[in-house]
Amino acid sequence: MPKVVDPEERRASVAAAVWRVVRRSGLDGVSVRTVAAEAGLSAGSLRHYFATQAELLAFAMQLVADRVRARVDAIGPGPDPVTTVRRVIDELLPLDPERRAEAEVWLAFTTRAQVDPALRALRDASYDALEGLCADLVDALAPEHPHRAAEIERLYSLIDGLVLHAVMRPDRATPELMGAVVDRHLAELGQ
After folding, report:
1. Beta carbons within 8 Å of 58's beta carbon, 6+ residues apart
2. How many CB atoms lie within 10 A of CB 10?
3. Buried (b) or exposed (e) across 77-107, using 16+ Cβ within 10 A?
4. Would the CA dihedral through 173, 160, 71, 119 be positive or negative?
5. Can you tell me the distance from the alpha carbon of 109 to that of 79, in angstroms, rounded to the nearest whole number?
6. Dist. CA 167–CA 164, nearest whole Å
7. pTM score, whole prediction
C-alpha cells in the first residue's frame, strides 16, 4: 500500500529544506535540484508540490511570516501589559536557534525582494503587519501617547534593527543585550 503524504506537511518540509539551503549557500544556491536533494526528494517529485522555483521561494518566505504570526497569536494576556508586550517582542527577535534561522532566512528573502516583485509583495505585507503589531503594542502601553506615530515607528525600527544586528553580528547583539535594549525602551515608552 502506498504511503499517504499530507501535501501541506510535505510543502512545509520542502520549505524547511529551502531554509537550510539558504542558510548554507544563500538564495543563489537555491535550485530545484539542490532543494530536492536537501529534502530527500526527486526533482520531479518536488515539482509536484511547487510548479516553479518562484512559487517555492514565495512559499518558503511566507512560511517564516506565518510561523512568527502563529507564535505571537498564541501569546495570552500576561500579568501586566509590559510583560505581554515583552513576550510578543521576544517572539520577533532571534533569541534562540529556531528564531535565528527564521531571521537569517527572512533577511535573505527581503534582500532578494528588492529585485523580485513576488517576494517584494510578501515582504511589504509582512512589514505592514509588523507595523500594525507595533501600533497595537504601543497602544497597549501608552494608549494616549502624544507622539503615537513616532513611537510606533521607533518600536518598529528598534525591532527591525535588533533583528538585523543579531543576524549580522551575533557576537555583539546577544539575547541578553537585545533584552536589555527592549526593556529600556518599554520602560521609557510606559512613562
Report:
1. 118, 119, 122
2. 16
3. eeeebbebbbebbbbbbbbeeebbbbbbbbb
4. negative
5. 36
6. 5
7. 0.89
Q: DSSP characters for 56-96?
A: HHHHHHHHHHHHHHHHHHT----SSHHHHHHHHHHHHS--S
Check: CB of residue 103 under 8 Å from CB of residue 95: no
Q: In the 8-state DSSP scheme, what is residue 163?
A: H
Domains detected in the chain: 1-51 (1.10.10.60), 60-189 (1.10.357.10)
- Amino acid at position 66, single letter: D
Can you tell me the distance from the alpha carbon of 27 to that of 168, in angstroms, rounded to the nearest whole number?
16
The C-alpha cell that represents 144 in the structure block: 494616549
How does pLDDT run across 125-159, given as a tens digit for each residue?
999 999 999 999 999 999 999 999 999 999 999 99
Cα gap 118→83, rounded to integer Å: 36
Residue that is written with C-alpha cell 527591525 in the block: 160
